[in-house]
Automatic annotation (TrEMBL):
TM helices/strands, residue ranges: none
Matches recorded under Gene3D superfamilies: Glutaredoxin
Name of the protein described by the UniProt record: Thioredoxin family protein
InterPro entries membership: BrxC (IPR022551), Thioredoxin-like_sf (IPR036249)
Species the sequence originates in: Neobacillus rhizosphaerae
């Protein structure tokens, strides 16, 4: 199940609480982002053992920018990021966000 986050406080709490999780930066107006969201949602439904979160870029731009700056990951939307132990291990954007790429990223970064 996908959970929405809106603030840096929520994100910092995730970094402290979750040893591993995914985050999707999602645009509410982009058809490519909509397709990526559907793939991300499918992954989340099939792999409920790893937490999955998302933010809507239009509603949480300061958070999106802060994550890009803090982890030195060029901002893109849509963008999926795998975090582990407070570090960004993997990211993909646009059409590279698929159920398969998410599964592969997890197995490659265990």
């Amino acid at each position: 199940m996908l959970k929405k986050i809106d603030s840096m406080e929520q994100f910092d709490e995730l970094l402290e609480k979750e040893s591993k999780f995914y985050l999707l930066k999602h645009s509410l107006t982009c058809p490519i982002s909509h397709a990526a969201y559907k793939e991300y949602e499918k992954y989340a439904d099939e792999h409920q053992d790893i937490p999955t979160f998302y933010l809507a870029v239009q509603e949480s731009r300061p958070l999106s920018n802060e994550i890009a700056e803090k982890f030195q990951i060029k901002h893109e939307s849509p963008q999926a990021i795998l975090f582990s132990n407070g570090e960004a291990l993997w990211s993909a954007s646009h059409w590279k966000i698929t159920n398969r790429s998410l599964v592969n990223s997890r197995t490659e970064n265990i």
